[in-house]
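re: ur question from the group chat, yeah i did fold both. here u go
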Amino acid sequence: MRYLILISSFVCLAASAAAQGTLRAPDSKSPKQKAPQQTVTNGALSLGVTGRRGGEYLVGYIGMPVYTYSRDEGTQSTCYGDCALRWPPYIVGAKDDVGPKAGVDGKVGTITRSDGNLQLTYNGRPLYFFSGDKDDKPPAGHKVNGLWLLVRP
């Protein structure tokens, strides 16, 4: 009986810690951790537009919505560590074609993250994907914690 109580307590404690980890503010103090790499399809990394008229938003080369983070400082990304696991930066290579598709009127560029990776930008703002987005589902990351916004063309 004592072991059952101890095991139950441990499980509850671990679940509580895990839940708190998902609700924490992003870890912006871990610049040495490499961001997750994205899988490139067809060698093109350009931004595209999707959504109904009046509600269009930008999508990355994997067909998923892209977001900006309001805590980024100017053109510099502040999303590293746990933050970058939940919000993978839109990482590109130095020789990749990042030209936008039709309908994307803003300026597409790159910045060098403090971890050495190149991150795609739109109108100077670093771009991210959201790990909670699913294929064929509406974007789930818009206005998360009041800090993440879908990118509009």
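okk and heres the other one u asked abt
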Amino acid sequence: MLFLFIYYSIRERKKFYIMVIPSENIGSLPRSNQVIQAYSDFQSRIIDKSALNQLLEKEAISNIAQLEKLGSKIVTDGEVFKPSFVTYAVAGMDLDPNGAVIPFEDGHTRQLPAIKNRGFKYSNYASEHLSLIQGHATVPVKVCVISPSAISLMYPAKEISGYPRDLFIDDLLKECETDIRNCLEVGVETVQIDATELRLSIKLDPSLQLLRQFVELINKVLDRFSYNERSRIGLHTCPGGDQDSCHSLDVEYSQLIPELFNIKAGKFYIALKCEQDQDRVLQLVREHLPEFPKVFFGVTDVCDPRVETPEEIKDLVLKIAQYIPPDRFGTCDDCGFSPFSDDRSTSIDTALAKIKARIDGTRMAENILGI
């Protein structure tokens, strides 16, 4: 019986192995115009939280269904419940709106809020809508959380009276741990830590001291989890896409990657498609990738309105396989499609077309590689 099982497994998959290249979206999907308007109306107090959530739940369910229809083996809700990938944890707090400013290459900026009160605690956790998501998904679920290093940028330059930065960091680490642990405990497949600020930190501080501080903060959170738990925790880095523009694409990966792989994550998600010298990036990853983690490479450029063809993605996956063994990597999109809830730069149709091309192109490469 065992012989027959192996024989038919080989016949169906050409050979008996478990080595299939996984493919995942990073997180956010473009919101509908109705949801974008609803967020604006909520901020203006035209509608209440209940009315907003009704629209968000409907869109989340639709996103899950569309991703599964395209063949996604792991899904997110599109991050529709987040006003942005970075500020969801502090949304609704009494904050100073005049925090750090992040400039993008096209000239637009995003401004972070700054905390002003003692006793930092998240106002919202990424796990809050997981029962809804898991109730409608027929495949495993992935959840994105913000990194402690990103939130650390919200502490003001002038120390808060009676609440020094060290105490804030202690509270921040506890909250980041809770955010991740809540997701793991309900059985999500992957918790992805979004850390787009890692590459930006090199622009802010070319000495790499800020980057190393960020890596240390993330590791202080990851140290609170077991080896098995960390195997389900990933780290995403990219040049910070928003409104079809980036904030740090001009920063060389050679400065980031050696430090990046000091992070004790079980998976890494790295933008690749938007890079001019993809071979150089792949060579750096091959040189520095630790033994344990799997690395996912972005094969669709979320800032480019052109939809990649499956053949184009197939060729990029085959290039990746020249540097990294196929059982060590997966594919993804370079970044989330709409990390901020007011972003209208990409339509949902374009995003889904890119995702379909990614999935189809990855499968085409698998067939050529014989896996």
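fwiw on the second one: The radius of gyration is 20 Å. The chain has a mean pLDDT of 93. idk if thats what u expected
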